[in-house]
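Re: weekly structure request thread

Next one in the queue (107 aa):
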Amino acid sequence: ILSAKDVCQAAMRGDIKAIEAFHSAGRMLGRSLAGVVQMLAPEAIFLTGGVAKAGHLLLDAAKNALGESLPPQCDVDLRLSEMNDDFAAARGAAVLCTKNYLDKARF
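Done, posted below.
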């Protein structure tokens, strides 16, 4: 049984089937994110964790599929997170909650 890490390492070595697997996963990710973008209208989506470690193997295909799946008026920046730790997503959620709270607070 191969792990995602094994497939990633194989793709980085140039294994065509591994590269195709990442491109396929990236296309599915991009199409799935299109629904999220249409509902929530985020300015940006940051990929982190194991997904980010795959780098452009996944990102390029995801960006293409996302662009193809969105109407022209929808625009979102899909990028890899520069925070490469297990808490990046939690930190981002905390910042968003704090921002929303402060935006609604009346001082």
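The chain has a mean pLDDT of 87. The helical segments are 4-12, 16-40, 50-53, 56-69, 88-104.
Next request, please.
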